[in-house]
Amino acid sequence: MEIERKFLIPKDHLPDGYDSYPCQVIEQGYLCTNPVVRIRRSNDTYYLTYKSGGLLAREEENLPLTAESYAHLRAKVDGLIIAKRRYVIPEKDGLSIELDVFESPYEGLYLAEVEFPSKEAALAYQPPEWFGEEVTYTAAYQNSRLSKGVKLPEE
Fold it and tell me: Is the pTM of this model over 0.85?
């Protein structure tokens, strides 16, 4: 079960030194968006992921892929390939903030996700001051929607 909250980060609120934290270079595409079936390259690791419906909490299953099988499936992606850098920033209570810095066509989009062990922990979470608007329940910011080339809401 994946339980996470997602927040927009205004560019002028990015924490100093965020790019000094561990980073994953991510490329992902969607074979299907309902249900979500995604392929992802994270550095040199490859996955096929199934996600059930939901916003705050949903089932998620990851299966390993080889580089060759990823390349084969990449050619079958429906929509845009999403490219981003993910910085993993330590947070209070043993949590981590995953700060996604998107590349074209979503360059300038910064999203932070925090995963939780329970719905109760997620709902009790008080985000740091540098976080912007919460978009957990805003489907427009789901990567599966972004892969369709949707125009983001005006800030």
Answer: yes
30 is catalytic: yes
Would you state the torsion angle of the CA atoms of residues 139, 136, 113, 130, taken in this order, to the nearest 10 degrees? 120
Set 18, 30, 46, 106: catalytic member:
30
List, in order of start, the domains of the chain with CATH numbers: 2-145 (2.40.320.10)
Sheet of strand 2-8, all strands in order from the earlier edge strand to the far edge: 57-58, 2-8, 110-115, 96-102, 82-90, 23-33, 36-42, 45-51, 60-65
96 pLDDT exceeds 70? yes
pLDDT, mean over the chain: 94
